[in-house]
Structure to design on (377 residues):
């Protein structure tokens, strides 16, 4: 269950409470779902009760209790078959109200297997919208290398969320931007095409030439910083060490692919399982329970990150998210393969499935940024 799915589930619970006369509010368009903060618990948390308290004329905790009852289908007692299906196949284990009215949601163990299976099924398109959103945009980049690369990447991300996007530049891009950085534009010139909403792309410019870094490092150097931060174009993006975030992302993907090849040589396959199956101790000395849960949280967050990167015109959000996924999967890789005389078990297959899901997210995210995901590094 992803944060996007959980957000929809929370909104359905609010809508049911409104229909039943328990709340008198306008149902918001979105419920923000995040990792629980200090004092929280469970897998995810939302502050929607605090958002609705004033319009509902009720204390936030009272609003939270109403929504909590609606989220816990079995306790609500007034649901039909269609609404039961809407509760994400009963993947919500428990909901706890903390603080002034935060809803803390714990998912059932089977949710981890379901998430990995979803990533397996959708592949690099995990997190993509399933159809046309109805939005039509024109991204008009200034004639500057960073603006053009940001517009190119942003066009890819917005298309992944179902928008129709035309990427243009005020004048024809320099040839080396196309050959050296892989920039692909739909048109150039000052003409504004009729119909689409126009967004001018003018991030803080690059003060030195990124082409010399090559396509992957050059694009990363321009996309990883927030648009208002000036990009630093240096050779450190070419160095293969942990201080280089691009290296960490690409190295994590290459290691996952190597682990998959080694698992095939040992004769076992990836088999998604509940979190308890992933956590089984293999004697490696690693805390696989914490590692697996941390990684699952980042993988589940991927659709929300893509949606926000498109909505806020911020490809840097995706770049930073990929670093988080890479850093979360790296510790788990030590426990994927059997050690010494140990035989492959169901736990190894479950960890392999989780690691491969992370590899899929890394490859898909890098592709949207226009960067290769290497099989070997």
């Amino acid at each position: 269950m992803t944060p996007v799915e959980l957000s929809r589930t929370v909104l359905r619970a609010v809508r049911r409470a409104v229909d039943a006369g328990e709340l008198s509010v306008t149902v918001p368009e979105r419920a923000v779902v995040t990792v629980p903060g200090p004092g929280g618990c469970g897998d995810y948390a939302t502050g929607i009760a605090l958002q609705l308290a004033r319009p509902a004329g009720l204390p936030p905790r009272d609003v939270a209790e109403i929504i909590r009852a609606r989220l816990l289908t079995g306790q609500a007692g007034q649901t039909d078959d269609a609404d039961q299906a809407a509760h994400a196949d009963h993947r919500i284990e428990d909901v706890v109200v903390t603080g002034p009215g935060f809803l803390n949601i714990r998912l059932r163990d089977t949710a981890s297997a379901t998430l990995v299976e979803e990533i397996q099924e959708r592949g690099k398109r995990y997190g993509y919208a399933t159809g046309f959103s109805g939005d039509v945009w024109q991204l008009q980049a200034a004639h500057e290398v960073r603006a053009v690369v940001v517009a190119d990447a942003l066009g890819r991300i917005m298309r992944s969320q179902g928008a129709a996007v035309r990427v243009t530049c005020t004048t024809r891009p320099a040839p080396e931007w196309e050959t050296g950085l892989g920039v692909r534009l739909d048109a150039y010139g000052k003409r504004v095409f009729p119909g689409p909403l126009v967004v001018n792309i003018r991030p803080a410019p690059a003060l030195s030439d990124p082409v010399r870094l090559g396509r992957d490092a050059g694009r990363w150097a321009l996309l990883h910083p927030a648009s208002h931060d000036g990009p630093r174009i240096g050779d450190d993006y070419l160095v293969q060490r942990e201080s280089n975030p691009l290296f960490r992302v690409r190295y994590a993907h290459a290691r996952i692919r190597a682990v998959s090849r080694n698992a095939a040589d040992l004769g076992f396959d990836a088999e998604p399982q509940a979190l308890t199956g992933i956590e089984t101790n293999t004697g490696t000395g690693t805390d696989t329970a914490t590692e697996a849960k941390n990684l699952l949280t980042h993988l589940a967050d991927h659709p929300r990150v893509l949606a926000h990167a498109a909505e806020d015109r911020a490809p840097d959000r995706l770049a930073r998210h990929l670093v988080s996924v890479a850093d979360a999967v790296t510790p788990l890789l030590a426990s994927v393969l059997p050690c010494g005389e140990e035989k492959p078990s169901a736990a190894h297959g479950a960890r392999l499935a989780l690691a491969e899901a992370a590899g899929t997210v890394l490859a898909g995210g890098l592709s949207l940024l226009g960067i290769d995901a290497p099989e070997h590094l």
About this structure: The two ends are 32 Å apart (CA to CA). Residues 245-368 form a domain with the Isoleucyl-tRNA Synthetase; Domain 1 fold (CATH 1.10.730.10). The first strand starts at residue 33 and ends at 34. The CA atoms of residues 270 and 353 lie 4 Å apart.
